[in-house]
UniProtKB/TrEMBL annotation:
Sequence positions that bind a divalent metal cation: H159, H204, H259
EC number: 1.1.1.262
UniProt-listed NCBIfam families: pdxA, PRK05312.1
Protein name: 4-hydroxythreonine-4-phosphate dehydrogenase
Cellular component per GO, a single term: cytoplasm
Binding note for cofactor: Binds 1 divalent metal cation per subunit. Can use ions such as Zn(2+), Mg(2+) or Co(2+).
Lineage, opening ranks: Bacteria, Pseudomonadati, Pseudomonadota, Alphaproteobacteria, Rhodobacterales
Residues that hold substrate according to the record: H129, T130, K267, N276, R285
């Protein structure tokens, strides 16, 4: 029997706890998972059952939300993060990674965290989940992919200002991102020879150098080197022509130079079903593609679709990797 997916609680003052409950109600044992967090943070009236070990989740799923309890200090107010909770949120992530790496969980699905709350409350030293997970896993670099049935995108640079992108975009960073993406598409997505489309940095991919030199001096030499090794790569292409229906049919993933260049297309095409997948880790990690939504936390308004898709994708990727 395949081990269940571990779902971390994320920021308890956000929508994470209610999304866990809604996902359990919707999935109805089809995707076995267990929630790691403080049971007192779940919405009032939640049907849950505490488990001692992850393998007990299978027997519990059909009757109640399986909960591997992790007690927090301090009160919870929906929409208002408590600094006393910050270290507990971090500890839950680390605990879930231990469970996945030991084989007790098949994959990790993470509920949204609030980076500022973690920094203010516990001195969290990482830009976000992705970098912290890479540190826990002992890998130098991981890659963020956003995926849905309509599109997969990978940004080479992520959470930095636009003005800093040209200086942070290096040949080694681009090559490393391409190699990690290619290997992950083969191993986890079952694509024997994945097709990768690469966007340029500048408008019209620089238009022969008239609108910027990065395509000529940096991007194309990297792509040519990898193409010579047999990787199926096209580009650099003008980003404004890469995401219509006919263009998307020609590749398996779009590699983009910066955050919004990648995320605007997928969020426009499939806002509710996008899933964040971390590539390059020794285990499967997915996450819903949204934040903590403090403004609606505790009101029962949160849409669980992305969390459900993230749990389903985590299960599918774990099965493929294990096979």
């Amino acid at each position: 029997m395949t081990a269940p997916v571990a779902l971390s609680c994320g920021e308890p003052a956000g929508i994470g706890p209610e999304l866990a409950v809604k996902a359990w109600e919707e999935l109805d044992s089809r995707v076995p998972f267990f929630w790691v967090g403080d049971p007192s943070h779940l919405p009032q009236g939640t049907l849950f059952r505490e488990i001692e070990t992850p393998d007990q989740a299978h027997a519990v799923m059909s009757e109640a939300l399986p909960v591997l309890a992790h007690r927090f200090n301090g009160p919870l107010t929906a929409g208002v993060p408590n600094p006393d909770h910050a270290q507990h949120v971090i500890d839950v992530i680390a605990r879930c990674v231990d469970l996945v790496q030991s084989g007790q969980a098949s994959a990790l699905c993470t509920a949204p965290i609030h980076k500022q709350a973690l920094q203010d409350g516990a001195g969290f030293a990482y830009p976000g989940h992705t970098e912290y997970l890479a540190s826990l896993a002992g890998v130098e670099r991981s890659v963020m992919m956003l995926a849905s049935d309509q599109l997969r995108v990978v940004p080479v640079t992520i959470h930095i200002a636009i003005k800093d992108v040209p200086s942070r975009l290096t040949a080694s960073l681009l090559e490393e991102t391409l190699r990690i993406t290619h290997a992950s598409l083969q191993r986890d997505f079952g694509l024997e020879n994945p097709r990768i489309a690469v966007a340029g940095l500048n408008p019209h991919a620089g238009e022969g150098g008239k609108m910027g030199q990065e395509e000529i001096t940096l991007i194309t030499p990297v792509l040519d080197r990898l193409r010579a090794e047999g990787l199926q790569i096209v580009g650099p292409s003008s980003a404004d022509t890469m995401f219509h229906v006919r263009a998307r049919a020609g590749y398996d993933v779009a590699l983009c130079m910066y955050h919004d260049q990648a995320l605007i297309p997928i969020k426009t095409l499939d806002f509710d079903r996008g899933v964040n997948v971390t590539l390059g880790l020794p285990f499967i990690r997915t996450s819903p593609d949204h934040g903590t939504a403090f403004d609606i936390a505790g009101k029962g308004l949160a849409n669980p679709t992305s969390t459900i898709e993230a749990l389903k994708m985590a299960t599918d990727l774990a099965k493929r990797r294990n096979a």
